[in-house]
Amino acid sequence: MTTRALVTFSRVLLGAMAAVACWPAPAAEPAADRPQPWVVANSQDRLMRSADGQHEYRIFAATVGPVPAAGYPAIYILDANSSFGTLLDEARRQQDATYKASVLVVGVGYPGEVPWHDLQRTFDLTPKVAPGVVPRGPGGQPLPPTGGADHFLDFILNTLRPAIERDFKVDRTRQTLAGHSFGGLFTLHTYLTRNDSFQRYVAMSPSIWFADGHILGEIPQLEHRVRSGHEPAPLLITVGGCEQTFGECDPAMPRTPVRQQWLETQTRMIDRARDLQARVNGIRDPALGVELQVIEGEHHISVIAPSVSRVVRFALGN
User: Fold this and answer.
1) What digits encode the pLDDT tens for the residues 295-310?
2) What is the set of active-site residues?
3) Chain centre to alpha carbon of residue 80
4) 8 located within any domain
């Protein structure tokens, strides 16, 4: 190839390359045509550590409605990996159709996505028992380590709540604590031993059976405060109608002698809830007494959703 021909070829090649470089890039696929993560408006989650750095928690928070002049009423719910979404949805529905009341929902959970974190929650949500007492599960099986309730409550009151109140305008006179199962036990423990921590309490299917009814031994602490002139906060207890005997709401649960014994003689969820209600109401004005609702047709897990509906009504209603 002659020099002139080589120059001509080079110019043609460079021109073609320049033309290609100037072609518009393929149009990006419209975002609306691609699946996107579902994000709930006005919600967030974060990780927080306890003051001693030993425990890490996943904290969910969401507001429903505009901020009131006095600040948001706040509902704190435990086992948030399982229950926060249920509570938030119910708060949104009721705010839109029933109460027209704004609310801040705060969930205390654990890192990850699994609904239940049995090892950590068993420690966090159970009170410390007397030396030598070895708490066991309903079937007599050993439990993971227990007894961290007071440390966990310190985290909620002294670390978590100040952080929430820095980020949101909160009505400190309208704060509700709610929990299910061991979370219900923790709610009762807080109600009986540090009653002024919250203004309302909801114990959903509380594990009163824990450590042979240890929680009943804490009632005198509340009684002492009442005798000293303290007006205790309202308490609602919910329990499923099928939590003590097998019934139509448990069609998939095999009836075994061991499980029958759990329900009827060991956990005795309904009887124990009634017993605690009677004992607490015996030390206070019955007009301000503990309310117990037995929700028919529900077992220990299915009762969560209808109980959460009652949490919203109890927290926001009169």
Assistant:
1) 998 989 999 999 999 9
2) 181, 243, 300
3) 3
4) no
